[in-house]
């Protein structure tokens, strides 16, 4: 691409003009709120609600309080486990779809169809399936396999299930995109050189779909780390993550400065992760 | 010792297309065997069946006398050099060459890789990725990757087609030398008759899923059995139902005395090619003839009355067109 400096001046001006709406949106909806939250995080909580002086860094030092550090760590672990589970489920699915020939589009639609319904509704649907009187427990009891209902809801397992269910398509689609571009002749070459199917997968297919795996991991990990709805509904307050903690600070705890500090740390972590991946292979993330 | 490869009445049918209709051939051990034919004649399909990428509809494939129809590609001791090389882009030249050896759990990998990279003159470029290699170098990595496995049979699918014309001739010579040196049997697919004639010990001429003729380059060129085989491996002049190659067709003001056949003709064009002249003439019967004439025999001008003549032994005996 030509640099702006070498382009004729009229083109450069036009380019600035064209980018103006985008910059405006970014500034108003992202940079300004970020600055607001940033300044909140340096203030002290008000007597009843809101903010007051003096400026302080205490909100950040509180992050190291074991009470909160555990929740931060838990969130990272939950997001990481959800990402790993998504990868394990999505890779074979993406591989299958990429080899499905004329049925490809049909299967891709199946992956996308959940997006037609609100995430909230779908999460509630899971609650109805998992609760003590839900479909699974009722069925298992009717079959006489269990006496008491299994504790399927309001635990880490339920939250993980919800995260994996919610973000699986974000892993399937980028992996599918790289597998789709994979030259079939390379797989023939692998078999020709003596690679059994498993070796072809581990030595050729996985390395060559690494960009898609990386993109999928980022697209799942970042929203999973900040997940609010899933732990709220499926964790029922017993399995909480950063998102719930932040919500809590702004509502019941009435501690806006600490909530702002948490938000900023979460945003910074996501940005840092994106930055690392963007720097490695910028074009592949989108 | 029997042939390395034997195909017995191989048929390959697709839902809407009959790719091969009864191919039978034997590839002798150590031979450079070429399948020659226009695109769509089934030569690449034949190669893919031998490699195991596809299964024949009918017929048997025998490698060293044993039927291998049911074996998967990774169970066959044959290896393919793909037209576009199909090098693994995420592996270096060395990684590509090692790939097959590692899958087989071979020993002494380092030494064998070094040896084969020296053989194809790629020593010093082991650490480069395919994207960092030239077309010719990639082709040699593809060759090395297959040769290092010491296959019973090396399958080459137009391996020179992706090279630029200048390089192609040079690599052609190297390929022949290499094949003699390593002594591995080559089954080579090409649509280029010059390639087939210059490289092969034996050529199978294919057309529309059938083998028209199998023979040495001399046999195919000088004693073609069908009109298709005759015209595919070189140009032909047709004179009163007789076919003669351009280089055996002579043009001079007078036909020489002796045992030759001649026809009166009129020169229609003369192209200077440096070492030879290409003279075009029209017979009284209206047939156009091209002859290659030595520059030393003097020039010809359009409209000049000449005799076109040839020796009877240079006539190609072809069956009448069906």
Biggest β-sheet: strands ordered side by side in the sheet of chain A: 1-2
- Shape call of chain A: globular
**How much β-strand is present in the residues of chain A?**
under 5%
Overall pLDDT of chain B: 91
Q: Say what oligomer this is.
A: heterodimer
Give the averaged pLDDT of chain A, no decimals: 85
Q: Between the first and last Cα atoms of chain A, what is the distance in angstroms?
A: 18 Å
Sheet with the most strands, sense and barrel status of chain B:
6 strands, mixed
**Class based on secondary structure composition and strand pairing of chain A:** mainly alpha
Backbone shape of chain B:
elongated
Radius of gyration of chain A: 24 Å
Count of alpha and pi helical runs of chain B: 8
CATH superfamily of chain A: MetI-like
- List the secondary-structure elements of chain B in sequence, H or E: EEEHEEEHHHEHEHEEHHEEEEEEEE
